[in-house]
Each structure stands twice: as C-alpha cells, then as structure tokens.
Amino acid sequence: MANGSSSPPGTSDIGSDVSARGIRAAAEPSRPAARRAGASGGPRPDSRLATMARNRSALIVLAALAAAAILPETGQGNYVMSIAVQIEILMCLVLGLNFVVGYAGMLDLGFAAFFAIGAYMTGLLSVDLHWPILATIPPAIGAALLGAVFVGLPTLRLRSDYLAVVTLGFGEIIQEVVTNLNQTGGPEGISGIPPLRIGGLVVTTNDGYYNVFLVLVLVFVAVSFRVRHSRLGRAWLAIREDEDTAQAMGIKVRRFKLYAYMAGSVFGSITGSLYGSAFIAIAPPSFGFNESLLVVMAVSIGGIGSIWGGLLGAGIVVAFPEVFRQFAQARLLVFGVVLVLIMVLRPQGVWPESGLGLDRAARFVARFPGRRGEAIAARRRAAGVERTP
Q1: Is the dihedral of CA 362, 364, 366, 371 positive or negative?
Q2: What mean pLDDT is predicted for residues 30-56?
Q3: pLDDT digits (tens, 9 = 90+) for 123-181
Q4: CA nearest to 350, candidates 306, 289, 288
Q5: Closest alpha carbon to 279 in 193, 214, 201, 215
Q6: Coil, strand, or helix at residue 63?
Q7: Chain-centroid distance, C-alpha 267
Q8: CA–CA separation, 75 and 92 (whole Å)
Q9: CA angle at residue 256 from 251 to 261, to 5 degrees?
Q10: Could you read off the pLDDT of 194-205 as tens digits, one per residue?
Q11: d(CA 35, CA 290)
Q12: Going by fewer Cβ within 10 Å, which terminus of the chain is more open, N or C?
C-alpha cells in the first residue's frame, strides 16, 4: 500500500471480489427492478387474458340475470314458470349446502332436514295459529338452528364418510318424525297453507313466486360472496384444504364447522318456509333422501365451492329431465348418461371455483393469431429461410 502498511492476507482478493460483484450489480438491473420496468411498459399478456376472462364471466352472469328478470314478461305458460320456480328453490338450497360442502369441506347427506323444518314450522304456525307467512320465518330459523346445534355439537368431530352417515341419519329421522306425528298431518302432510303477503300485496301466481324466489336467490348470492371473503369464510376454506393444519394454526375447527352447519340450516329453513307457501301443501316425501341427494348432485355438477357453478348445477338437475321428457320412460337413463359425460369431461364441475377457464382458452387461441403468423413469415423471408417458388 502507499503508506507502507501491510494488509492482512486475502484482503485484496476479498476487495476485488466485492468490486466485481458491485460492477455486475450496476451493469445488470435487479430482478424486482426488471419486473417493475416490465410492468411499467404495459400489462402482461397473462394479466390481460385473465381480465378478459373475468369480464366475459361477468357478462355471462349479467346476461343470465337479465334473461331471468324478463322471463315472466315473455308470456310463458304455467308449466314453464313452475319449472323455473323449482329451479330457484333448488338454487337456494344449493347455496345453503355450499357453506357445508363447498366452503367447510363436510359431506352432508341430510340437508333436506332443514328444508323440512322450515316448511313444517311455517305450515303449523300459519294453518293452526293463522300467523302470516313472513312472521313464521324467524321461528323456522330458530328451530333449524336448534337442530343444527343438536346434531352438530356431538358429531362434527367426525370426518368424511362417518359424518355423511350421521347427517343422512338426521335427515331420515326428521322425515320419520313428520310422517308419524299427528300434529304434522302424518303421511298426508299439511294443506291449506295461506299465500305470502308482503304489505298489501298477495302473491298467488307462479309469476309472483318466481319473482320472490329470484330476489331470495340474489340475496343468498350476495351473502355467500360476503361470507366467502370474510374471516369466517377464510377459516372454512383452511379447514377444507387441511383440517389438521388449520387446527395447528389456531383455528377452532369444531366451532367453525358448527358455524358452517348453522349457516346452511338458515338458508334451508328460509327456503322451506317460502316453499310451503308457494305450493300450498307439503308432505313428507318432498323432504326425503332423494331431495338431499338432488342438492348434493347440483353442487357437484356445478363445481364444489363455486357460487355460480352451484346455480348452474341446479338449473341442469331440474331442467334436463324436463328437456328429455320426450323420451318417456327412458328420459332418466338419458339424463344419467348426460350427467356421466359431464363428470367425465368436467370432473371439477361445469363452472368450478377457479372459473370457467376462459383465460386458458384465450391463451391457447392467442398462440395462433393471424398477425403473429404473418410476422413469423416476414422474419423468415428476411432471414432467407423461406423458399421462393
């Protein structure tokens, strides 16, 4: 050194190495900086495709909502409107079961029990005590919550098939109770349920109940989206993905499972209360295992955990057998074949939680645009690769 002092061994090598790294760092921009530079130059193609896919999905939803809103004005007959009401009822039940199966990851095969509790509470209070239909909804919700707590507290520690068997038993018990009690009308059920009154408006037609259930579906969808993105919804999703990991992270698994069960019971009981008013009479066969299986089927076909998929699945499950009615006795066979094809071709559901997959389709199509092909041909001509005729 200039002052004559000696440096420790290896110091000059370290200094030169540091200097070299500094030069390279100055010459090459850092990766985050490069990302920022790329982002400032414009949106990435993948993000543009994802945005386009979301916009297309939103357009599909808005188009379906517009079509549903104008359906009563198209002059459809009572048959079509009754099928539409049944689709909306199943949509409400699907949104309720989606809390349990789609969000919390629990298999429930007795969801029709809460549907029955709501319907029979409204039937008993409105026919025997002459309560208005709207006034019977809070007691119906309370009875369904009591049933959810009664079954959920001792059984929600179970998992998978064991929990499914318990919920199936609960549904069968409720059906047997309403079948054998004289107060519930026995096998004949309850008839003469009064129509729904909203202020001075009395709902008596299929068109009127169609609009009532359409509003109910929209309310349930809004609540489902709000819960999905809340702390409660995130806890449910964590339990669905890995229950042991969620427990290790401090989530009270049994408590949040019970919350999911109670949330589903609320949706099911409200739907049951309005169902009794819409159809005037209720009977035990309407609340058996087949109804529960129909709701589970709609959730699975549409996409487990997907709100829009559940609605689409409800429409498929109710409408397809009617479309194939021309096949007479073979219509259920044709419907079964269609369901098998759907599950084989779309095992994740028709409209899964991740979306319709329009961004992947757009990305695939973007590989072969006409302009890109022309640009490749031009580069080949400039490089002398393309042969001249």
Answers
A1: negative
A2: 52
A3: 999 999 999 999 999 999 999 999 999 988 888 888 778 888 999 999 999 999 999 99
A4: 306
A5: 193
A6: helix
A7: 14
A8: 25
A9: 160
A10: 999 998 899 999
A11: 55
A12: C
Residue 93 parent element (H or E)? helix 78-97
pLDDT digits (tens, 9 = 90+) for 252-292: 999 999 999 999 999 999 999 999 999 999 999 999 999 99
Burial level of 230, CB count in 10 A (0-12/13-18/19+)? exposed
> What residues contact 189, with CB distance under 8 A and at least 6 apart?
123, 178, 281, 282, 283, 284
Residue 33 C-beta-side C-alpha neighbours within 13 Å: 6
Q: Give the ranges where 280-353 is alpha helix by DSSP (H).
A: 289-302, 307-323, 331-345
Residue 15 has pLDDT above 90, yes or no: no
Record the tokens describing residue 238, joined without a space.
Answer: 């964590």
Does the pLDDT value for residue 22 go beyond 60? Answer: no
Query: What is the rounded radius of gyration, in angstroms, for the C-alpha atoms of the chain?
Result: 30
245: which 2 tokens? 């990991």
| DSSP 8-state code for residue 198 | E
Residue 202 bridge partners (DSSP): 197
Element (H, E) at 25: helix 11-27
In the predicted model, what is the mean pLDDT of the chain? 82
Query: Candidates 3.30.70, 1.10.1740, 3.30.750, 1.10.3470; correct CATH number of 77-347?
Result: 1.10.3470
Encoded amino acid at 337, one letter: V
Which range among 42-46, 222-226, 256-260, 324-328 shows the weakest confidence by mean pLDDT?
42-46
| Whole-angstrom distance, CA of residue 291 vs CA of residue 295 | 6
Contacts with 214 (C-beta within 8 Å, 6 or more apart), sequence order: 68, 69, 88
